[in-house]
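Standup notes, structure subgroup. Blocker cleared on the iron/sulfur cluster input:
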Amino acid sequence: MPSVFIKTYGCQMNVRDSEQVARDLASRGYDLVEHEEKADVVLLNTCSVRDMAEQKAIGKMQTLGGRKKRRQHQVIGFLGCMAQSRGASILDELPDVDLVVGTQKFHEVGRHVDELFRQHRENPAAVPAPRVDVAEETGSQNTIRDHLLAPRQVTAFVSIMQGCNMHCTFCIVPSTRGAERSRPLAEIVAEVESLVAQGVKEVTLLGQIVNLYGRHEFPSVDGRSPFTQLLQAVCAVPGLQRVRFTSPHPIGFKDDLIACFRELPNLCEHVHLPLQSGSDLMLKSMHRAYTRAGYLRLIDKLRVAQPGIAFTTDIIVGFPGETEENFRQTCDLVREIAYDNAFVFRYSPRRDTPAATMEGQLPEDVKMERNQELLRILDEIAAQRTKKLLGREDEILVEGESRTNPSRFQGRTRTNRLVLIEANDRWRGELLPVRLTESTGFTWYAEPKLV
Ligand code: SF4
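Run returned:
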């Protein structure tokens, strides 16, 4: 059977969607390969969150298109967010592309690839017409449910919903991922039970706006939101050691969800809580639906519920109209909260988003300066944290070979700190007590605490 290589750009949702596509193709008999050179099918699962992400995928596809001239029967295609937002127009720029499949049609990729190969077999001299499938499909959120676990894999992503109705003025996600659509609670719990039965010890619940899961589809019960009900049900799965979720929105944290951090022992003490800006003026212009004071109150409430909780965040610098004063407010809030880490993005105008045509677009050098300044502040905070935590004991879930240094194993603490230890197969997949011995500020080194 032909071989397939899938390259994934962007977020964990994309990684999860690629896994589902890989699983479907494998079940149709395709061989999944690690390298594109020899692959008969090359699929790029794309991201549109910033222009740079799109340009990277387009650049890659131009290279693939060039190579395809020597391998007429190769199938090359785009999947995901950029495929959704550009659709058939991408073929004008890249005529060698055979397949363009949007974010609500991942379950159709296998059928399209089969069809392209059937046409190749029946008429080797002809080049099949490209296939474009970017329609919306009711229930598509329920098609991301199967896994392709590696041997002794102990962590897994579970997609619980798709789409977002928030419409932040800088964000292209609502137009690429569509409206919020949640999966039935029982199906998600069954998926988690099956993962635990296959040896998984930690699951991360995924959604663009994960803690607003089911707000349009399912009722609150006894003051508990659909997401809190789901979290409680997932945490109650026997044998599941750790639960995480990403990416939440601050407005989705009501007291019932905050209480979960006090009451659910296997809910990990980490929240990725996008801030975007520390200025109320910018938050309003971004349509983020919370204020600086409201965000801080939430942080305080979560710290009361779970004193050891760690926070990471997303911040945009250089949003249209951002003054030096607005930026200072962001810097001050970052210092005050002392995040474990933050993903800092220079504002990138996105197609058909309100912010792209706003007054006060800032020059790139100003964005770069503010980006550097914020990274400096995060380094200072990390250096403080390193002083405090060095020599401390903690527990990691050993995932296996480090992605950056295969001679070491990697694992994460419950507070989501990345820890590297010496590679030793007997620790693979284990919850291991360790002593933190060194840190780069964001990556930690540790030695197992042998009893
Ligand atoms: S909540 Fe997140 S995904 Fe939704 S529009 Fe805002 S930034 Fe985009």
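Discussed briefly. Residues 228 and 260 are 8 Å apart (CA to CA).
Next: hand off to the docking folks.
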